[in-house]
Amino acid sequence: MDLATVETLLTTTRSVRQRLDLTRPVEPETIQTCLELAIQAPTGSNRQTYHFLVITDADKRTALARLYCKSFYEAWTPERKAATEQTDARNLASYFYLAEHLHEVPVHIIPCISGRLVGTELFQQATGYGGILPTTWSLMLALRAHGLGAAWTTVHLKYADEAAALLGIPGHITQVALLPVAYYLGDDFKPAKRVPARERTYWNGWQRTR
Question: Any idea where the Nitroreductase domain is (predicted)?
Fold first, then answer.
């Protein structure tokens, strides 16, 4: 195993919003290959409760983008936007760019799981989401390795019922995220600024550092 390549993949897989190629088609076979790789991620008791809804139809992408934007602009009030511009203008611009261009992104992927988790106990929620979150992150890694960018978004979930009606998603299925997917522009992704893991790592008891 080439450790340097693995470390590069793990440290440079970003949420890509502004650097998505909106004009280049994405081959269905490439998406399917990435999904086949992703499902090798851990899944509790090998239950494999995950599903992936891939939307390439332009009309459905546009309708889904409308739901996304409705939720997005309800959350990003002028006051919140103005305050964020003072502290995080760069990321803010990318959020708004994605909202404005989401309908143009050639592939939307909605990871889902069987079952409804609202109102269930923590154990059930952790078990349920544990069956899809590792797989979805593996999908983003696989996409990156194939030259595709994605952004992990949850904005549309405020209107998950409307999205389900639009896409024919059954009532017992829970949507978990929406990944806009396209080939990315450029390849100079860098590790993100993070609080060092050492500062958030505790050994043998809470807040007991080494």
Answer: 12-183
The owner of tokens 């978004």 is 153
Tell me whether residue 105 is in a domain: yes
Assigned domain for 206 exists = no
List CB contacts of 34: < 8 A, sequence separation 6 or more: 139, 142, 143, 146, 148
Give the side-chain half-sphere CA count within 13 A for 31: 20
What confidence tier does 184 reach under pLDDT thresholds 50, 70, 90? very high
**pTM of the full structure:** 0.95
Q: List pLDDT tens digits, range 52-110.
A: 999 999 999 999 999 999 999 999 999 999 999 888 888 999 999 999 999 999 999 99
Q: Are 111 and 177 in contact (CB under 8 A)?
A: yes
Instruction: Note the maximum CA span of the chain.
Output: 55
Domain assignment present for 28: yes
Which CATH number goes with the domain that contains 191?
Answer: 3.40.109.10
Distance between CA 34 and CA 153 in Å, rounded?
Answer: 19
Element (H, E) at 85: helix 78-85
Q: How many domains does the chain have?
A: 1
In a domain, 207, yes or no: no
Work out the average pLDDT over 1-13: 96
DSSP assignment of 161-175 equals HHHHHHHT--TTEEE
3-state secondary structure of 116: coil
Q: Domain range holding 90?
A: 3-200
